[in-house]
Sequence to fold (88 residues):
Amino acid sequence: MRILRARLYERALHEQQTELAADRRAQVGTGERSEKVRTYNFPQGRVTDHRIKLTTHNLQSVLEGELDEYTDALAAEERRQKLEAQAA
Fold:
């Protein structure tokens, strides 16, 4: 029974570590230059978040720290992805 318990524990621990590593990789990404997060276009006053494909023309307010629109959109996208993952 001890051996069985130890093997089950090792399997559960391995699955948990694998899941955490996958979540970490999804959050960090590859770090390549082509993996853009956000583009700031000063001449046109435009900000584009490439992760959620959201473009706004309020560059000055974003630079002042008003990121609520972006954080809300990112949170909604994360919820949508989690729901899709649960449905699959």
Q: What stands out?
A: The beta strands are 38-41, 46-49, 54-56.
